[in-house]
Design goal:
heterotrimer; A alpha+beta; B alpha+beta; C alpha+beta; A: alpha+beta; Uridine Diphospho-n-acetylenolpyruvylglucosamine Reductase, domain 2; Uridine Diphospho-n-acetylenolpyruvylglucosamine Reductase, domain 3; 5-stranded antiparallel sheet; 12 helices; B: alpha+beta; Aldehyde Oxidoreductase, domain 4; Aldehyde Oxidoreductase, domain 3; 7-stranded mixed sheet; 5-stranded mixed sheet; 18 helices; 28 strands; 27% helix
Chain lengths: 321, 768, 158
């Protein structure tokens, strides 16, 4: 499948990149290419301009600092999990990054790119010809959602592996534009809208992830449940972070909703001591907050089962540490 | 077995391994010709519809488009590998019958233009009601998919041996179970492709095609293009896997030739991966009901089968498939009384065709699963039950099979031993278990035509040997095996042999790679050709030595009198003398071989021995079921395998390994998911077949039986080993968690659901 | 708009005129005539298109050729030195780590990247790094054996 035609830009600075993004309606950032280019071959994304960030200096780094760990958005997933500080201090993030796709995807893919990936749906991630069997879906520019069979709504799932690990660490994102910089919670990047899953302002570029210092202690993990042990997107992915005194517990899931999900009700129940006895209720609470729908080959009911299983596995792992 | 062979029986790399590791092995898409054009095919987005009108005008006007063709433009000639089952046009005429049916094709200066042009073709369809389940499709009132097939049953077979239904009255116990096998895609790494060229002066087409059946392809192209076979040359380049999916002519073959003829330029068509999933072939989903009657001691006395194969929109190999599915219920167990009813049913879905095992894996799944159930119900050990019912060499066979060699009982014993059967079956902790599955497969099957394979062997003055064979190597190493056979007969090394194969313009006829007949059929032909060549040389050398030709031996590049190695010539010297005697060079030997039969015995006709020999095997699996997640890990798979004599054990091991992973995929991971006729997962991402991470420990055990009809005693090894891994794994799952699964694939979702139900309904079945 | 790009492939420099929407895979095969890199799915899910980019295993079907400028590309054609096969190539031949050969270039290059990174990896590590290279013929066993045998060689040399 050929890629559609586009203008290609290699800005040398954030200002230049931001200008292009602001000016061009249909401009997209090219990071590793493993998400965007597939979607372009399928013609579900056809940006008029593609902007590679590779000429912009200092976007690929892992910097342990006093205030925490800073990770450049263009750092490859492999560089993230191979970095000794991350492997040691942020094992959950290392697990997540090393579970993305296959080894090749980890080499090519970036932490920023994985975080900002397009939402997914079995009716959306298909070729143009395949999709011609039915009306254009809302996400692809039509009216109807084929999953829930309603108009002007999109239930596509967010399926990135890295996001939940960042969410449980209350990680921050640095967004830069020619107007300036702002730091936001990674969680707030996600709109929960399947059609436009990312809430960046016009001209804004994610340049950095910042993990607070406190997360370098305690217990963190990520479990990915997928069909195979490589290549696949998660059927469900789950992250947990617990503070050393276990008084603070944070839980997040991916591939169960239109955005990566912090399971706050369950967190509350589990905070103050992770115990098996609280598990059943925690699972129930988690399921109250997640609303998986049948956007993939794996039915929502199965995803719900798996969410509970993963929560249980993470707690078991925590208790056995 | 004490055979003093130099080349046969040795673990040797494939002849073209060097080219493959260097990336210089040429596959169809690697071929480039000056002025070459590129084609793409427009396919139906609807499962069932009348084609009212195809408007290609906008596509034709696009700069760079050189030609467009639709069903209207092509001859009213259907194609199909089985003559009586031809039901498909290269491009659909009047009607489309599945999502993916080829409607039109475009040829342009580059791929980008061709793709753009596809989008400019408008087709007016009148949608028709569609049917997706074979059991629905046979009901009165169901949408009729082919006009001449009122009940959508394109082929049926009913066979009865022995006393039929009456025999059940003589049984002590009768069991009946129904099973379902899912649609599986071959998913070869190389997509289907073809490049064609045309010589207007001689009116000759040359087509390079990624195919398993060059000669059948030639025939189908001749039929549909209205060009004599003699004017079509089919050349098979390296093929990146087939597994049965590249048997048949495809739109890409037809259209490449069509445009080459019309435009006078080379034309290439390469399928997108989603086209391979949707619009080539797949393993037929099948419902199989088995009724088995046994005696008190577990002896099988009668069996009856009802099978419904979901054929998809067209026949492909339907009559062959459904017949094979039947006949191979008669091995490896003795079934004195058998009734089989099989139906191939049309549905508005992707087309079923030959896939490794060709109808037998589905039937095998049913039989092997039921055997375990019977074993459980009767308190007999499943391994013993299989050994008890095993056929043996030389027995009278109800279907008329002639079984000269049979290592089945031994394979059960060896597989069971290797997996640790006695220590493990019924004894492992909950979640772990072992299971067995047995099978048998023909080494080549007789068809209505192209029964024989021919070979020519030439010995040049420098001692190098050229073999011409029609055999189609698709990666299994057919050319290497043939070369080994020739090398052994001529007493030379593998390095001395060059093989030219699968070119209908040069090489003798061969049916192609299907039915696992290549080693026996093409191997025997090559062997005969080598012997014919050797006889000429021996006659000459014998005269020189004043010896008897029968007393000569060719070995280690020498020809000498048996027992007296000094009394002879080096091969080079012998050839030199031959040449100096003004005898014609190169020295040529010819041979052809066909499976022996007393009377025309064909699959479609009826009884009789329709394979020269039969392979036998047992697979044993050990699994670990994670009862929390439902995931099944196959810890180990053992195959005990009777392929007569392995000509090249390295290649046979490769077949075993590949078959096991394929069987494991079928059991646990793979499924062509279809919704309203549309394949939902036509990608390597979503159709998840196993990666290195899923690979179990694998062990292969050879059971040597040395068959009289196979070259050097060989029997097939390419397909038989994919018949039983799935039931072995599912039988092991039963041992692990006490749950019977009668449908494939067995996914984590299924297991979790079943475990939940088991907990809520205690006291169903005890572990065997 | 076409870009004029200098691509370094297997130590040679190729000056090519390419559109931004051409993938490295297509440029290698169609413009440079290097057919050893294969197109199995064109969507990054099979690894048949693997090439080395500055020594790392990349899916060339998901890389824009313009992005390959200034990087060192190695395809399967660049592995053998003169007439001498690379140890991985020899091992694949000897161990029977191939059948149809279509996945083989990608397999070998990924293996090379893996061994360059970790000279004596565990079998688990080999399998993990090669899990993005699909094979339908071999069942992977002899492939992993081939790679392990080369790793064992390096181990001995140390």
């Amino acid at each position: 499948m050929r890629l559609p035609k586009f203008e290609y830009a290699e800005p040398k600075s954030i200002e230049e990149a931001s200008s292009i993004l602001s000016k061009e309606d249909g401009a997209k950032i090219l990071a590793g290419g493993t998400d965007l280019l597939v979607n372009m071959k399928h013609r579900v994304e056809t940006p008029a301009v593609i902007m590679s960030l590779k000429k912009i200096p200092d976007l690929s780094f892992v910097r342990p600092e006093d205030g925490g760990i800073r990770i450049g958005a263009m750092t490859s997933l492999k560089s993230v999990y191979s970095h000794p500080t991350i492997a040691e201090k942020l094992p959950g993030l290392a697990l997540a990054a090393s579970s993305v796709g296959s080894y090749h995807h980890q080499v090519m893919g970036t932490v920023g790119g994985n975080l900002c990936q397009q939402n997914r749906c079995k009716y959306f991630n298909q070729s143009r010809w395949w999709r011609s069997s039915r009306a254009l879906c809302f996400k692809a520019g039509g009216e109807l959602c084929h999953v829930v069979k309603k108009k002007n709504i999109c239930f596509s799932s967010y399926c990135g592996d890295v996001a939940p690990s960042l969410l449980v660490m209350n990680a921050k994102a640095l967004l830069e534009s020619k107007e300036g910089k702002r730091e936001v919670e990674v969680e707030s990047l996600f709109t929960g809208d399947g059609k436009s899953p990312l809430g960046l302002r016009r001209g804004e570029i994610l340049t950095e992830i910042r993990v607070p210092r406190e997360c370098q202690e305690g217990f963190s993990t990520y479990i990915k449940f997928a069909n195979r042990e490589s290549i696949d997107f998660p059927i469900v992915g789950a992250s947990l972070w617990a503070s050393p005194d276990t008084k603070t517990v944070r839980l997040a899931f991916t591939a169960v909703d239109r955005k990566p999900l912090r399971a706050r009700k369950a967190e509350e129940r589990l905070s103050g001591g992770l115990q098996k006895s609280a598990l059943e209720e925690a699972v129930r609470l988690v399921l109250e907050e997640a609303k998986p729908v049948n956007t993939s080959l794996y039915p929502a009911s199965h995803k719900r089962d798996v969410m509970g299983l993963l929560l249980e596995s993470m707690i078991t792992k925590f208790l056995g540490r | 077995m004490d055979k003093d062979w130099s080349v046969v029986g040795a673990k040797l790399p494939m002849l073209d391994a060097g080219a493959k590791v260097k990336g210089t092995a040429q596959f169809t898409d690697d071929l480039v010709f000056p002025g070459m054009l590129h084609g793409r095919i427009l396919r139906s987005p609807l499962p069932h519809a009348k084609i009212l009108h195809v408007d290609t005008s906008r596509a034709e006007k696009l700069a760079g488009v050189k030609g467009v063709v639709t069903g209207k433009d092509i001859a009213d000639r259907k194609f199909g590998i089985v003559p009586k089952a031809k039901d498909e046009y290269a491009l659909a005429k009047e009607k489309v019958r599945y999502v993916g049916d080829a409607v039109a094709a475009v040829c342009a200066v580059d791929l980008e233009t061709a793709e753009e042009a596809l989008a400019l073709i408008s087709v007016d369809y009148e949608e028709l009601p569609a049917v997706y389940d074979p059991l629905e499709a046979i009901k009165p009132g169901a949408p009729r998919i082919h006009d001449d097939v009122p009940n959508n049953i394109s082929t049926s077979i009913r066979k009865e041996f022995g006393k039929g239904e009456k025999a059940f009255e003589e049984c002590d116990f009768v069991f009946e179970d129904t099973f379902y096998s899912q649609a599986v895609n071959h998913a070869p790494l190389e997509p289907h492709a073809a490049v064609a060229q045309f010589d207007p002066l001689r009116g000759e087409i040359v087509i390079w095609s990624s195919t398993q059946i060059p000669f059948f392809l030639r025939r189908n192209l001749a039929t549909t293009l209205l060009v004599p076979e003699s004017k079509i040359r089919v050349i098979k380049p390296k093929v990146g896997g087939g597994f049965g999916g590249k048997i048949d002519m495809f739109a890409k073959d037809f259209c490449a030739c069509w445009f080459a003829m019309k435009l006078g330029r080379p034309v290439k068509f390469v399928y997108e991966r989603e086209e391979v999933f949707i619009a080539t072939r797949q393993r037929h989903p099948m419902y199989v009901t088995v009724k088995t009657g046994v005696k008190k001691d577990g002896t099988i006395h009668a069996q009856r089968f009802w099978a419904y194969a979901d054929g998809g929109a067209y026949n492909s190999t339907a009559p062959l498939m459904i017949t094979l599915s039947c006949y191979f219920l008669m091995v490896p167990y003795r079934v004195p009384n058998l009734i089989y009813e099989g139906h191939h049913v049309y549905t508005n879905k992707p087309v079923g065709g030959a896939m490794r095992g060709h109808g037998i894996p589905q039937a095998r799944f049913a039989v092997e699963r039921q055997l375990d159930k019977i074993a459980g119900r009767m308190g007999i050990d499943p391994a013993e039950l299989r050994i008890k019912n095993s056929i043996h060499a030389g027995e009278d066979h109800p279907g008329g099979f002639i079984i000269n060699t049979c290592g089945f009982a031994e394979s059960v014993q060896k597989a069971a031993e290797a997996i640790g059967w006695k220590e493990k079956r019924g004894k492992l902790p909950f979640g772990r278990g072992v299971g067995l599955g047995g099978a048998s497969f023909p080494s080549g099957v007789s068809n209505m035509s192209h029964l024989a394979s021919g070979a020519v062997v030439q010995l040049g003055q420098d001692g190098a040997v050229t073999v011409l064979t029609g055999a189609a190597d698709i990666g299994q190493g057919a050319e290497t095996v043939i070369a080994q056979i020739v090398a052994e007969e001529l007493g030379v090394r593998l390095d001395d042999i060059r093989v030219t194969a699968a070119d209908t313009g040069i090489t003798p006829l061969d049916p192609g790679t299907f039915g696992s007949g290549v080693t026996v059929r093409a191997g025997n032909a090559a062997r005969l050709a080598a012997v014919s060549l050797r006889n000429k040389l021996f006659d000459f050398v014998a005269r020189k030595l004043e010896a008897n030709p029968e007393d000569l031996v060719a070995k280690d590049r020498r020809i000498y009198v048996k027992g007296s190695p000094d009394q002879g010539f080096s091969l080079l010297d012998a050839v030199k003398e031959y040449r100096y005697a003004d005898l014609p060079m190169p020295i040529i030997g010819r041979g052809s071989w066909m499976a022996p039969a007393q009377e025309p015995t064909t699959l479609l006709k009826g009884d009789g021995n329709f394979a020269p020999n039969y392979s036998f095997m047992t697979q044993a699996a050990e699994v670990e079921v994670d009862t929390k997640t439902g995931k099944v890990k196959v810890v180990k798979m053992v195959t005990a395998h009777d392929c007569g004599t392995p000509i090249n054990p390295l290649l046979v091991e490769g077949q075993l390994d590949g078959s096991i992973i394929g069987g494991m995929g079928q059991a646990l991971y793979e499924n062509v998911v279809v919704e309203n006729g549309q394949v939902m997962n036509p990608s390597f991402l979503d159709y998840g077949f196993p990666t290195t991470m899923e690979m179990p420990e694998m062990e292969g055990i050879q059971v040597i039986t040395d068959d009289p009809l196979g070259p050097f005693g060989a029997k097939e090894s390419g397909e038989g080993t994919q018949l039983a891994p799935a039931p072995a794994i599912v039988n092991a799952i039963y041992d692990a968690i006490g749950i019977d699964f009668d449908k494939l694939p067995v996914t984590p979702e299924q297991i979790l659901k079943a475990l939940r139900e088991k907990i809520s309904k205690p006291g169903t079945r005890k572990k065997a | 708009m076409k870009h004029s790009v200098a691509l370094s492939v297997n130590g040679d420099t190729y000056d090519v005129l390419i559109s931004p929407n051409e993938t490295l895979l297509d440029v290698l095969r169609e413009k440079l005539g290097l057919m050893g890199t294969k197109k199995g799915c064109d969507l990054g899910a099979c690894g048949a298109c693997t090439v080395l980019v500055d020594g790392e295993a990349y899916l060339s079907c998901l890389m824009l050729a313009v992005n390959a400028a200034g990087r060192k590309i190695v395809t399967i054609e660049g592995l053998a030195q003169g007439g001498e096969l690379h140890p991985l190539q020899k091992a694949f031949i000897e161990k029977g780590g191939l059948q149809c050969g279509f996945c083989t270039p990608g397999m070998i290059l990924t293996a090379k990247a893996a061994l360059d990174e970790e000279a004596v990896p565990t079998e688990a590590s080999i399998r993990r790094k090669m899990a993005g290279n699909l094979c339908r013929c071999t069942g992977y066993k002899k492939i992993v054996e081939a790679v392990s045998s080369v790793a064992a060689l390096s181990g001995k040399e140390d």
